[in-house]
Design a protein that fits this description.
Elements lengths: L1 E3 L1 H4 L6 E7 L4 E11 L2 E15 L6 E15 L20 E2 L5 E3 L1 H11 L38 H7 L5
Parallel strand pairs: 5-6
Antiparallel strand pairs: 1-7, 2-3, 3-4, 4-5
Length: 167
């Protein structure tokens, strides 16, 4: 997701460009607005991103859409007219930067904001039964013959007698 901003950097502060986002993985579709600021370009993005995850219950890989919205300033490193490197004493080291050839790559910003929007325990569907704790069978594909009934702790000592002996 690269944008050439050489013309925008020569424009007055407040000038902007609008772009449609589509087809660049992981962005499914969305919009980007790039606005000229005194020290660079403000990038505003509203997009639907498809995240590839594994279900936290059954471990099946699946993709699901999330909405990502952010505004980040991309700091100018080089003067577009003279090609001279610009000093930045007051800018944080972690800032997003415009490359020396006047390109903005929003891939890293989209990745970071997608991670923040991702579900902590993604599910392939809300009523996913998960895996059997005894045999590991995916219970979405069918039931297993394991006895998964909860044992009343008051009868746990008697349950030991029901198990076959090892000797």
């Amino acid at each position: 997701m690269l944008f050439n901003v050489s013309v925008l950097l020569r424009s007055p502060v407040g000038d902007y460009r609008r772009y449609d986002l589509s087809g660049d993985s992981p962005v499914h579709h969305g919009k980007a607005v790039l606005t000229r600021t005194p020290n660079g370009v403000l990038v505003g993005v509203k997009a639907t991103v498809v995240l590839d995850e594994s279900c936290s219950r059954c471990l099946v890989p699946f993709g699901y859409p999330v909405q990502v919205e952010f505004e980040e300033v991309f700091v100018q490193q080089v003067d577009p007219v003279s090609g001279r490197r610009l000093p930045h004493e007051d800018e944080p080291v972690e800032a997003f930067v415009i490359s020396p050839d006047h390109m903005i790559d929003i891939t890293e910003a989209v990745r970071q904001y997608s991670l923040m929007a991702a579900a902590m325990q993604p599910l392939c569907h809300p009523d996913c039964p998960g895996l059997c704790v005894e045999c590991g069978k995916d219970l979405n594909l069918g039931s297993c013959s394991c006895d998964r009934a909860p044992i009343d702790s008051r009868w746990a000592a008697l349950a030991v007698l029901k198990q076959p002996s090892n000797g």
